[in-house]
Amino acid sequence: MGKNGRKGGSVGRNTLDVFIGKGTSLEGKIISEGSVRIEGRVDGDIECAGDVAVGKEGVVHSNIRARHVVNAGTIHGHVVAEGRVSLTATGRLFGTIQASALAVEEGAWFQGTSKMEVKSVSRLADAKSADARETKTSEAVQAKTAKTQAAG
Length: 152
Hints:
Elements: E1 16-20, E2 25-27, E3 30-32, E4 35-38, E5 41-43, E6 46-48, E7 52-54, E8 59-61, E9 64-66, E10 69-71, E11 74-81, E12 84-87, E13 92-99, E14 101-104, E15 109-116, H1 119-151
Parallel strand pairs: 1-4, 2-5, 3-6, 4-7, 5-8, 6-9, 7-10, 8-11, 9-11, 10-12, 11-13, 12-14, 13-15
Family: Belongs to the bactofilin family.
Organism: Candidatus Reconcilbacillus cellulovorans
Pfam families: Bactofilin
C-alpha cells in the first residue's frame, strides 16, 4: 500500500481524492493533493492541486483554489483556477472568478466579477520589455566604444 492506504502509490492532481456525496454536509477546510467532487454541501475553503467539480445537487459556500473548476451546482464565494472555470447550464456562481479561461454554457448564472489572467500575453510583454532594455544597453556600449576610438 502507498500513501493514504492506497495500492499503487501517492495521490496526484488527476486522482479523485475527496468525494462529498448527496445528502452529506461538511463544515471546514478541505486541502487535497488530488481532485475534489461535491454532490452535497460544503461550508469552508477548498485548496486543491487537482480539479474541483460541483455536481448538480452540490452547494458550496467557499473560497476555492484549484487547477480547474467545473460547476453544475451552486457556488457562493471566490474561485481561483490556474486553468479554466466552467459553468454548465445548471451552474450558479455568486462571487468572483480569477482564471486563465472562463466557459459559461447557456442557462448558467454568474453574478459577480471575473478577472482573466492570460499568462502567455504577460510573458510576451515581459520578453518585449527585456528586448528593449537589451537594445538600449547595446546602443550605449556602441556609443561609448565610438567615443573611445575617436579620442585615441
